């Protein structure tokens, strides 16, 4: 390859290159770009002709980049970032009239705490705004935010790399133990021995970092006897209210349950539990997006004061 003319390259080719680079699959790239797989294959053929290189070679079930593709990736990524930023700066955003759909990732626990208050706030001031709420593993979330498939993420997401992600603290929280109000341990000061005698409901969603809490409990000598594993929080209050099972969750989430049916017990002070820092995250390549900036500011205004309660 001696010379590449800009006249032979359009933006869609660069977007196709980026999608194949990140997903290592023509099928997955076509899904992301919302075009057919033959269209992706055609774009890849054009890229190969332009750069006189295979760029991506199939190896088993993935498309492996060549050395040329590896050298091209960083400048293409930077070019797309600059173009996207320039376009964002030209777009006006008026929450009173927009009909934009924001794509936000949060756990079902965060949904119960955040969405009722947020939708109530926006009902009068931004009636046309829509939301798509999703859950996904951290690894997928990083890619989705980078590609603009997710506008914001909200929660206790300690694994997000803040070098590429703009984050703002929404509130601080702590882990507590929740049991039914008539539980034999209700109202008592818990000890490590008490925790070892309990049987637990364990909630493990893609959007929570409760593994950090489990590690802290294990270091303190607590071996949680897990009787029920769930992928969501929604049914937990009903289970706790009708059994002698316990659950360890953020205090603000447990406080949504009725005080008449549930009892919140502080964990022993000699257990070094992690503090829960709930944040709102957006990718810094969309820092010029006025809509995302507005939604971040709205969430901060609505919930930041809650962290001081």
Short description:
With 309 residues, the chain is of the alpha/beta class.
Largest sheet: 5 strands, mixed
Range of helix content: 40-55%
Number of strands: 12
Assigned CATH class of the largest domain: Alpha Beta
Order of strands across the widest beta sheet? Answer: 4-3-5-12-6
Describe the structure.
The protein is of the alpha/beta class and 309 residues long. It has three domains: 6-90, Winged helix-like DNA-binding domain superfamily/Winged helix DNA-binding domain (Arc Repressor Mutant, subunit A); 101-169 and 279-308, 3-Layer(aba) Sandwich (D-Maltodextrin-Binding Protein, domain 2); 175-274, 3-Layer(aba) Sandwich (D-Maltodextrin-Binding Protein, domain 2). It is 41% helix and 21% strand. It contains eleven helices and twelve strands. It has a five-stranded mixed sheet. Strand 8 (199-203), helix 8 (211-219) and strand 9 form a beta-alpha-beta unit. It is elongated, with a radius of gyration of 24 Å.
Architecture blueprint of SSEs:
Blueprint lengths: L10 H13 L2 H8 L3 H15 L4 E4 L2 E4 L1 H24 L10 E5 L2 H18 L4 E5 L3 H10 L4 E4 L9 E9 L1 E6 L11 H6 L1 E5 L7 H9 L5 E6 L5 H6 L5 E4 H4 L7 E5 L9 E8 L6 H14 L6
Parallel strand pairs: 3-4, 3-5, 8-9
Antiparallel strand pairs: 1-2, 5-12, 6-12, 7-10, 7-11
Helix pairs in contact: 1-2, 1-3, 1-4, 2-3, 5-11
Supply the key terms.
309 residues; alpha/beta; Arc Repressor Mutant, subunit A; D-Maltodextrin-Binding Protein, domain 2; 3 domains; five-stranded mixed β-sheet; 11 helices
